[in-house]
Amino acid sequence: MGKLILVPTPIGNLEDITLRALRVLKEADFILAEDTRTTGMLLKHYQIESKMFSHHKFNEHNTVEKITQRIKGGETAAMVSDAGTPGISDPGYLLVNHCITNGIEVECLPGATALIPAIVMAGLPNDRFCFEGFLPPKKGRQKKLTALQQEERTMVFYESPHRLVKTLNQSAEFFGLERKAAVCRELSKFYEEIKRGSLEELIKYYTDHPPKGEIVLVIEGNREL
């Protein structure tokens, strides 16, 4: 029987990939990619010619059984997302769970993720923190923020640039304008930017300077409890 290997890929700088990850991608019988075009650029850069198949949130329910059978037949599959570690706010969980249920070995390599650099560079307490991924875009958003009002740990969110100001405003509504936060944008890329301050200060800044790129939002926990 083969196995499933989750392989973290760079979140920006192509040098942020381990030698082990490159070896696994070269040796895998096939690679499962969230977007074959994005992964194709990485493979071309490192002259990797392994077969690649599309595996994303829109087709994973239809492909998971076929993939599992191939692994059971002795093939090794390497799974990547567009950037970072598969399964962290990206496809991965469904296939991992299916493989475990079928007695297939699952391995995950250490490597790139936007979560850890952001929490380290935010300058907020990081001995305890909670990762909330993406807030619900509409339904359930206020319910989630209400539940987090009592959260004492530093909170980490992924966010898109066009929703950042909305999220900052809603965070200020539920957590207070003076709550400390950091917006970590385009981590590891040429235009990397870390803005720290109160939610009020960050709202003003990003209202005047609409952001672009991938964003990690770090917000201080409730320190009054």
UniProtKB/TrEMBL annotation:
Reaction(s) the record says it catalyses: cytidine(1402) in 16S rRNA + S-adenosyl-L-methionine = 2'-O-methylcytidine(1402) in 16S rRNA + S-adenosyl-L-homocysteine + H(+)
Pfam families assigned to the protein according to its UniProt record, in alphabetical order: TP_methylase (PF00590)
Top-level EC class: transferase
Residue ranges constituting the Tetrapyrrole methylase domain according to the UniProt record: 3-202
InterPro entries to which the protein is assigned, alphabetical: 4pyrrol_Mease, 4pyrrol_Methylase_sf, 4pyrrole_Mease_sub1, 4pyrrole_Mease_sub2, rRNA_ssu_MeTfrase_I, SAM_MeTrfase_RsmI_CS
SUPFAM superfamilies assigned: Tetrapyrrole methylase
UniProt keyword terms in alphabetical order: Cytoplasm, Methyltransferase, rRNA processing, S-adenosyl-L-methionine, Transferase
EC number from the UniProt entry: 2.1.1.198
GO CC term (a single one): cytoplasm
Compartments where found: Cytoplasm
Organism superkingdom: Bacteria
Function: Catalyzes the 2'-O-methylation of the ribose of cytidine 1402 (C1402) in 16S rRNA.
Family: Belongs to the methyltransferase superfamily. RsmI family.
PANTHER family per UniProt: RIBOSOMAL RNA SMALL SUBUNIT METHYLTRANSFERASE I (PTHR46111:SF1)
Protein name: Ribosomal RNA small subunit methyltransferase I
Originating organism: Natronoflexus pectinivorans
Gene (UniProt): rsmI
